[in-house]
Amino acid sequence: MDKLVERAIEHTNKLINKGLLVWHEIPEFDTKEDENKWWCTPQGDRETLYSIASLFANDTPIGLSEIETRDILEDILCEKFPQYCD
Questions:
Q1: Please, what is the Cα angle at 79 between 65 and 73, to 5 degrees?
Q2: How many CA atoms, within 13 angstroms, populate the side-chain half-sphere of residue 70?
Q3: CB neighbours of 67 closer than 8 A, spacing ≥ 6?
Q4: How confident is the model at residue 78 (pLDDT cuts 50, 70, 90)?
Q5: Is the pLDDT of residue 86 over 90?
Q6: pLDDT of 69 strictly over 90
Q7: pLDDT tens digits for 1-27?
Q8: Is residue 38 a contact partner of residue 27, using CB atoms and an 8 Å limit?
Q9: What is the pLDDT of residue 1?
Q10: What integer is the mean pLDDT of 52-78?
Q11: Average pLDDT in the 36-63 region?
Q12: Which of 35, 45, 39, 36 is nearest to 15 (CA)?
């Protein structure tokens, strides 16, 4: 699980450096097209800590469910990056 946490934190830091980690700045969208354009940028896709936790939970360690892994990762990421959590 430690390696999984390290990889999730590393990925999060890369997104922060690129300006692609978002939370409070998510706007309201008039159309699905506008929403897709906002989330998918030329620099890469914007993500939240919750989407990162879900992404990395796909590599669930033996003995944990994917949901348990996601919840653990969410807690760790929110503790490390509280400005990107609700």
A1: 15
A2: 10
A3: 57
A4: very high
A5: no
A6: yes
A7: 899 999 999 999 999 999 999 988 899
A8: yes
A9: 86
A10: 92
A11: 92
A12: 45
Strands (E) in 1-86, as ranges, are 40-41, 44-45
- The Cα diameter of the chain in Å comes to 43
Task: Say which residues have a Cβ less than 8 Å from residue 10's Cβ, sequence separation at least 6.
Answer: none
- Smallest CA-to-CA distance from 41 within 55, 13, 23, 21 is with 21
Strand locations in 18-77 (E): 40-41, 44-45
Contacts of 19 (CB under 8 A, 6+ apart): 43
Rounded-to-integer distance, Cα 62 and Cα 46, Å: 30
Tokens of 20: 């692609």
3-state secondary structure of 45: strand
Q: Assign residue 19 a region (left: φ > 0; alpha: ψ between -120 and 50; beta: otherwise).
A: left
